TrEMBL record:
UniProt lineage: Bacteria, Pseudomonadati, Pseudomonadota, Gammaproteobacteria, Enterobacterales
Protein name: Uncharacterized protein
Species in which this protein is naturally found: Klebsiella oxytoca
Superkingdom of this protein's organism: Bacteria
Length: 353
């Protein structure tokens, strides 16, 4: 079962430069001169005023293709590995540093242990099968086939996790950063990758092995992608200047309004209740209704204790709590003066100046 149903094409192949490009680096419309990475159909760059930028097929699709985002991310991952010929991978054992695995004789696809690998390569004398996973199923190799050799290792790249990490760049229209983020995940980070099998697993104690934590289902990835990565304010220490205090208050309310808007993907009944009630906590453009927030927070804590929220929902609600607490903490500062804070802020934001 596929774990994500987002449909937009993030990359195209520029027929002029013979390079993969993002939506932000080409001309609008058919002038982009790009074709689909998967099927070769000409693309149209849609750089509208009100919609997130993306490519789409400009004509009837040639052969088999789709606009499922994961399919295009998967293709991009495959192309970049073939180009670089190495991967950053987690150490097999917990607590050990990641390593760079150089790959020789890289080939696209092939049957490995009864499964369709996306890539195969050789490191030292070991054949490595690479699986770029865009489904909800764990990859399960045939154990009988694994037992027949000690020169085979299998690696999974979690494309769903990678998509959830890069999604915020699309929200901000930062296509180039999106491509850079994928490359960093592949070649400098051990995140979103795991060893499915390695010959040393036969002798190592299970509790010493690196444990990969798969990240959630489709709705979970959507929720995580909505949590802003770069905040407008520094949350290491509360602001002391009155104008900055007022600015922080406004920012927190703006963030909370976005996190609790009506089009947030539905989830568990508890999550839906928490999100639907949350806007009542917003008293004005700079303050939170503290009694309403306290009732909401108490309900959240009780339902979290009962297991009413899944992992993604907990992380999402926890972020709402973090932002709300920042607002309340500023109001509770001993030196906070609401009128002075607004006055000082207004002096630097007066639209009539």
């Amino acid at each position: 079962m596929r774990r994500n149903a987002q449909k937009w094409i993030p990359f195209g192949f520029d027929t002029d430069s013979n390079k993969i490009v993002d939506i932000a680096s080409v001309e609008n419309g058919l002038s982009c001169n790009c074709i689909c990475l998967i099927c070769g159909t000409s693309l149209i760059a849609r750089q509208g005023q009100n919609k997130k930028w993306h490519f789409s097929h400009s004509t009837e699709v040639k052969g088999v293709c789709s606009e499922l985002t994961l399919q295009h991310i998967k293709k991009y991952i495959k192309v970049k590995i073939q180009e670089k010929k190495y991967l950053a991978l987690p150490h097999l054992l917990q607590g050990k540093e990641k390593g760079i695995v150089n790959l020789k004789n890289l080939a696209g696809g092939g049957i490995v242990c009864g499964l369709n690998a996306d890539l195969t390569g050789i490191c030292n004398d070991t054949t490595i099968g690479i699986f770029i996973n865009d489904t909800s199923e764990d990859i399960q190799p045939n154990p009988d086939l694994l037992a027949q050799t000690d020169q085979l290792a299998l690696v999974e790249i979690d494309a769903v996790r990678i998509e959830s990490i890069i999604a915020p760049y699309r929200e901000n229209g930062e296509g180039i950063k999106m491509m850079d983020a994928i490359e960093k995940l592949l070649f400098t980070s051990d995140e979103a990758k795991r060893w499915i099998y390695h010959p040393l697993m036969q002798t190592a104690s299970p509790h010493t092995l690196h444990q990969y934590k798969r990240h959630l289902n489709a709705s979970g990835n959507q929720l995580l992608s909505m949590i802003p990565v770069d905040l407008p304010m520094n949350m290491n220490s509360l602001p002391l200047a009155p104008a900055q205090q007022w600015q922080h208050l406004r920012w927190t309310i703006e963030i909370l309004a976005k996190l609790t808007r009506a089009d947030i993907p539905s989830g568990s009944s508890v999550f839906d209740e928490l999100v639907s009630y949350a806007p009542r906590m917003l008293d004005s453009w700079e303050s939170i209704n503290v009694p309403a927030y306290e009732r909401w927070y108490d309900y959240y804590i009780s339902k979290r204790g009962e297991g009413g929220l899944n992992e993604a929902e907990q992380e999402y609600i926890s972020f709402i709590v973090k932002i709300a607490n920042w607002n309340v903490s500023i109001h509770n500062l001993p030196e906070f003066d609401r009128e002075r804070a607004f006055h000082d802020w207004f002096l630097t934001h007066d639209p009539n100046k």
